Write the structure tokens for this entry.
Amino acid sequence: MTGGEPLLQTGLPELCSRIRRLGLQIKLDTNGSLPERLEPLLAASLVNYVAVDIKGPPGKIRAIARSGIPEAELVAATEATVGLLKASAVPYELRTTVVPGLLDEGDLIALAQWMKGSHRFVLQQFRPGKCLDPLFGDLAPYPPTYLRERADAISAFFGACTVRGLG
């Protein structure tokens, strides 16, 4: 399920239950801000895989996400979400889209230290063009070698660290 934050939908547990009864698998993509809504889905085995978008390290999440939620609340919610996933048997990944000008090498190291011990971490290549914010429409992405080197530099913090979207 993708397209906005699915955990905002009050009927999500019922929908997941109906989908599971059909014998289908469910991947949930979330921004990690609603651990209290993720927990019942994990407890009831209603999802097969969870992908969490980690916008940036503490101190940058609110600005990158352009959220009205205070930074401390976003950090706490993200930590709670990741904690739930680490404690569950549900496979998961954490992922960050590496946008030039928003995230640099130091931010990625801080992010890796913050999320250390997670099963899988993915650095995603930023793709200009159809961006919600027109300021990013013509922004050149980091070169593929930059992302591969960053992934290598932080790989020791995770079970697996990969790069996605290099073309």
Notes: The chain has a mean pLDDT of 93. The beta strands are 27-30, 49-53, 92-98, 120-125, 160-164. The first strand starts at residue 27 and ends at 30. DSSP finds six helices and five strands in the chain.
